[in-house]
Amino acid sequence: MIEAVDPVILQETALDVGEFKLVPALTVAAMLILFLGVGYFFRVAAVDELWVAGRSIGSIENGMAIGANWMSAASYLGVASLVALSGYFGLAYVVGWTTGYFILLIFLAAQFRRFGKYTAPDFVGDRFYSDWARGIAAFTTLAIAFTYAIGQASGMGLMAQYIFGISYEMGVILLMGVTIAYVALSGMLGTTKNMAIQYVILIIAFTLGLYAVGWSQGYSTVLPYLEFGSEVSAAAAIETQFVEPFAAAGYYGWIALAFSLIVGTCGLPHVLVRFYTVENERTARWSTVWGLFFICLLYWGTAAYAAFGGLLYNEEVTEGGGFATGDGEMLGIEADALVVLTTQLADLPEWLVGLVAAGAVAAALATTAGLFITASSAAAHDIYTNLYKDNATQREQMIVGRATILGIGALVTLIGLNPPALIGELVAMAFAIAGSIFFPVFFLGLWWENTTKEGAIAGMLAGIVLSFGAILNDTAIPMYTGVEEAVFPTVATWLPGTSSALLGVPIVFSVIIVVSVLTDEPPEDVKRLVRQCHSPEPMQQMESAEDIATDGGLEDGAADGGSATDVADRPTDDDTDSEPETEE
Amino acid sequence: MSDNTSQDTEHAAETDGGVKTEAYLDKEINIFKPATPFMRDHLRVIWLSFVAWIVVVFGPTTAILFAPEFMTETTVLGGFPLHFFLAAIVTPLGALLLSVGYAMQRDRLDTKYGISHEEAAESDGTVAADGGEP
Asked: Where does the Sodium symporter small subunit domain start and stop, copy by copy (chain B) (predicted)?
């Protein structure tokens, strides 16, 4: 199901590359200057602000940030491409990448807000009272950020080809450089503000392109999402696999993929950190709802782009020869640029095509920023400070965090020069990793207080073997040995690299439960911590579950956190203050 | 329902805030064994909406197995095959509506249990979290 794509070179392609385009280039430049300006304006020094934005973000703004954080090049460019090439199978990406937010909302979002630490490894380390668990989680976070970001680098390279007329490789290097610079400069507060802006830019660009294509081609008028029915039939008449349910993969493949993307959504560290940045748990819930709404606005349009793009490609490029199969079919590189290609083939003005391309850059950049932030906090906070040097100063942490961003950025750029799969597939692999390794420990950690550290560690190791093994088997090893086939074809059928979580999650759940039953119960204070995550009692802005579970509820307000509220409602016993959380 | 605190006599000496937090810190968390009225109510909402979500998300594709002709040959809105339309448009919309429904139900539970997330929460004299339920 996954084919290694040929090395991306500047080849003859339907996308108009190889020529510098002034207006689109200015659009991207203006956008990048805006991001850097906002990042600079909101630059931060305190650790709390770098990672959780002082827990001050409201629900709509956070919803937009969730949307921008979420909608990477994979959503913006990759999904339309997958639907065009794989038809109904591609819709598993639409379903998986939208509906997972519901599971996150009902099972995890508010509880995570109540837990109130900085990062995903922090959660794992504290909940499972183990530095080993923390270390494994930090490693996983880095692996996810790395895999996920390769797809973004690839998308940036494609767009730079169109906009600047430079080579794909130069494009990857240039735009990744900008991303690295601005993340290192601004941190999370800057990126949260930026993400809201990025969301607005990317959704306007995407939607405007869709409306313009539909209108100029006579496909649709006011609501293209409901009007592309006849284009779907037309596309199906050209390529039957466009609507044939199980042409690209069977029922199992479809369900496995959708399931992996859903649980991956719930296990992604850079998604979870968005719940740490809000004021309170109610905001965490409603921002998830807003986030899903903002995400749906884009996803409803992806299948329309696929149908429009397929028809136009068939007319303009292959002249009736089809779009997904046959002579002159879309290559991986063209498919991944399909959204932009569609607007170009519809003969829209260059500035508009450039705007759509700029939106893709914004999408890739926003997500990469979120990924790099989580990766840097995993390295600085969870590995350096917690495992290596307990008394690390804030300054040291900032240095380690920024060094991580530079290091991982360089590595992603390198692999992005010759990515092993389509953008959407690369990102799906990151989801399979997150779903297999993190989702079970997050879920059981919050909903079953008897989950032990031994259980969590065994479960995460099992998840690592399953998800990494699946990727090595059908993508990484074939790609780097030049063999077409997976190492173990049967394994690739049941455990594809993009969808390993359907088998992985139940196995990891069982491992965790069995090992937890066999080992000693967690200590009482950890159980109290879990209970506090489910208490209906409101918590104050800067509080984490740990503060309350250990001192019975009184904490006299961290430096700036709404202290007027809580003192009244918590009667108190001991008042030993927990550590102040900000230094301002 | 805010005045029915009769079951709470053993905690009467404490003010309500403490009762809530303390009570919750003593009750086991197990998703299949809700130990408090609030958890029971909350989990009822969670499980019901979870089942609805499964139907919305995996229903259409599973239905293709059982009624392939009906799902692929029925067309809606000027040409969409039914299965394509359901997966591309209706399923994401369904998840969104379920999310709104869940968040509203959860807000309703907050009201029922006298929980406020406002900064200036007036919490004196509101209901105890573990009273209230028959």
From this structure: 36-115
d(CA A376, CA A138) in angstroms, rounded, equals 10
Q: Whose CA is closest to A84, among A310, A419, A319, A311?
A: A310
Q: Which of B31, B45, B48, B19 is nearest to B105 (CA)?
A: B45
pLDDT value of residue A545? 72
**Complex-level ipTM:** 0.84
Residues A289, B22: C-beta atoms closer than 8 Å: no
Contacts A289 to B, Cβ<8 Å: 96, 99-100, 103
Cross-strand partners of A57: A278
d(CA A548, CA A535): 11
More confident residue, A394 or A205: A205
CA dist A206 and A218 (Å) reads 18
Q: How far is CA A316 from the centre of its chain?
A: 34
Which CATH entry fits the domain spanning A22-42+58-98+125-248+279-320+336-435: 1.20.1730.10, 2.60.210.10, 3.40.50.790, 1.10.600.10?
1.20.1730.10
Q: Provide the pLDDT for residue A329.
A: 67
Type and span of the H or E element at B128: none
Q: Specify the pLDDT at position A494.
A: 87
> In chain B, what residues touch A446 (CB-CB under 8 Å)?
29
Angle between helix A338-345 and A281-312 (nearest 10): 50
The contacts of residue B47 (CB under 8 Å, 6+ apart) are none
